[in-house]
Amino acid sequence: MKKNDIGVIGLAVMGENLILNIESKGFSVSIYNRTAQKVSQLLETRARGKNIQGAYSLEEFVDQLERPRKVMLLVKAGDAVEDLINQIIPLLEPGDIIIDGGNSNYLDTIRRTELVESKGLLYIGTGVSGGEEGALRGPSIMPGGSKQAWPHVKPIFQAIAAKVDGSPCCDWVGDNGSGHYVKMIHNGIEYGDIQLICEAYHLMRDLLDMDSGEIASKFAYWNQTDLSSFLIEITADILNYKNENGIYEVDCILDRAGHKGTGIWTGVTALELGVPLTLICESVFSRILSSMKDDRVNASKVITKAAPVFNGDKNAFIDDIGKALLASKIVSYAQGFELLKAASASYGWELDYGSIALMWRGGCIIRSVFLGTIKEAFERDPGLKNLMLALYFRQKLEQSLPSWRRVASTAILNGIPAPAFCSALAYFDGYTCANLPANLLQAMRDYFGAHLYERIDAPRGQFFHTNWTGKGGTTTAAPPS
């Protein structure tokens, strides 16, 4: 009896839809789930008559697969992945491949790659983005890990991935945890994009007194411009949707956001690698602040603030918001790619940034026309220091800057929180400022801790200390490495 091409463990939304996608591209699939009822249910419904075979034990599941066996885990990140790996390793043979397709922390993937390879097996940690629809019709897939495994999974992964201009939104990323790292950065940028959209909506709703339908029309228009993206598109759809009572459904939703941890991982990693990921971190903090609903309601009753008042040209300000949205989005991606570069250098991954942008052009949540331009920027200059310096992005930032400043200042003056817009602008201003006040900062550090400083009239790397009070000694901290 012919063995199956690949096996998938985990029949939640992503697993079920990815299985159907794989089968639709001509591959045979074995499926297993801890709850056996889910296997039977899928076989009797959406998988009926398809080249999908169920298994009711891990031993049966493994026996159904051709060598080298390809076992894909689509289960919740954390202990569930760890438990399955430990259960399935003894059932596999040298050269077999374990694939983690969940949102695992890249540090776990680095460790698991080493463990699995020590057993003579191969390991892939792959990001899969696109949600339910993407999993079924074509996601963005970001695999990394044991390079020897790539030729065995490449035909399947590239067949099921989204396509843009005929190219699959899937390619090999790099060693060990790089695939999950790239997915983490994708999710961080997603946090930033969503927060920026929400701030634009907030300004139009509370400052310009526009209803959801009016705001939807603006997002629909922006989706025909440089802002064209999946998230802008669905925002227009969401804002236009009315429930059975004829009320815009978005107006009925509690303003309390959730998150699953990848945004926090991105922020922690940025701090560890010393990358100023300000916009994305503010987006995570905004979600956390939103969860403090009861506190916010109470504070709004206790602390008096003037109501927002707008007396300017409404249409001109809407145009300003669109330009601020584009400029801030550029900053979000610039920071995300800076973090990719820092990790690539730290872990020796040699990431291909143009290829990553291509992988994100279709199928994934942050897909947009914007990403094609990012790919071109890195193709023209593989050593590009910062995305904001590429010609297209530099011109857009310069053109948008007056609008960006008006939006940030108007939001502040009217008490409407816009942390993503404002932090993006602060990063831009900081990055383009030749002389920051860090000279005073270094003087203070030297004053209270003898931490040393460099001088503008001495070679870089030469450090000095001043006895600021005349009472200090000559002992100093070690020079920075």
Please characterize this protein's 3D structure:
By secondary structure, this protein is an alpha/beta fold. The protein has helices spanning 13-24, 36-44, 58-63, 79-88, 106-118, 131-137, 150-160, 178-207, 212-222, 230-240, 262-273, 278-290, 293-302, 314-347, 353-359, 370-380, 391-413, 419-431, 438-449; strands at residues 6-9, 29-32, 52-54, 70-73, 97-100, 122-129, 140-145, 163-164, 167-168, 174-175. The protein is built from 19 helices and 10 strands. β2, α2 and β3 (52-54) form a beta-alpha-beta unit. The longest helix has 34 residues, at 314-347. The N and C termini lie far apart (63 Å).
Tell me roughly what share of residues is in helical segments.
40-55%
Query: Could you name the ranges where pLDDT drops below 50 across 5 or more consecutive residues?
Result: none
The N- and C-terminal alpha carbons lie at a distance of 63 Å
Percent strand equals 5-15%
Task: Let me know the average pLDDT.
Answer: 95
Number of helices: 19
> Strand order within the widest sheet?
3-2-1-4-5-6-7-10
SSE succession: EHEHEHEHEHEHEHEEEHHHHHHHHHHHH
